Amino acid sequence: MKHQLIQNVTPRERSSKPIDAGVSIGHVHLKTADIDRVHSFYVGVLGFDVIFRMPQALFLSAGGYHHHLGFNTWESKGGNPPPPGTTGLYHVAIKYPTRAALGDAFRRLAAANWPLDGYNDHGTHEALYLSDPDGNGLELAWDRPEDQWPRDEDGHLTFGNRKLDLEGLFKEGADQT
Fold first, then answer.
1. What is the sign, positive or negative, of the torsion defined by CA atoms of 129, 131, 136, 138?
2. What single-letter DSSP state applies at residue 95?
3. Residue 177's pLDDT is what?
4. In terms of DSSP H, where are the helices of 88-150?
5. Are residues 97 and 166 in the same domain?
6. Under a CB-based contact definition with an 8 Å cutoff, are residues 29 and 71 in contact?
7. Residues 22-30, mean pLDDT to the nearest whole number
8. What is the reported pTM?
9. Cβ–Cβ contacts within 10 Å for residue 62, how many?
10. Same domain, 124 and 147
11. What are the tens digits of pLDDT across the range 56-93?
12. Least confident range of 88-92, 155-159, 162-166
């Protein structure tokens, strides 16, 4: 499994000039080799909505946002993923609002016979790891409520590396669909 618990973690460090706590990550825009192929995966399997499409670009959303994901072939049409051992994107995390919604994503992947690279229960969140059609790493996850996050005696987060209950996740919310 590619996702392992990281040993020798550096203690939490607070910046001397912290960024505003309201900052969030907006959208992710990725290069792709094939617009049709990413359309089939992100729309056909995961269920994102198409906001805008042209021959060289595709913009996708969950729930009507201007776009969460963008893809283009401007510099990558027909290209290959970067080889192992190079720098770049490790993964994009797609955060689902509930465990049931993550369970739905898991059932969609299973129905499409899409392979997982790994899965984990980190204590703060549960995650499925996979690669998209271009080899980009994806983490599909849901966060537990913050009052359930594991913390040490000083109140700092402690990440776990527990085995995710895949069978339970697969069944989560299945009776609602």
1. negative
2. E
3. 60
4. 99-111
5. yes
6. yes
7. 92
8. 0.89
9. 17
10. yes
11. 999 999 998 999 999 999 999 999 998 889 998 999 99
12. 155-159
Q: Report the alpha-carbon distance of residue 149 to residue 158 in Å, rounded.
A: 8
CA 111 – CA 33 distance, rounded (Å): 24
Number of neighbouring beta carbons within 10 Å of residue 141: 19
Can you tell me the distance from the alpha carbon of 94 to that of 48, in angstroms, rounded to the nearest whole number?
A: 11
**Is residue 160 located within the same domain as residue 96?**
yes
Domain identity same for 157 and 129:
yes
Strand order in the sheet with 57-61: 28-31, 69-72, 57-61, 49-54
For residue 169, being part of any structural domain is answered with yes
Structure tokens at 154: 């000083």
**Look-up: residue for tokens 């729309």?**
43
Rounded to whole angstroms, the Cα distance separating 6 from 156 reads 17
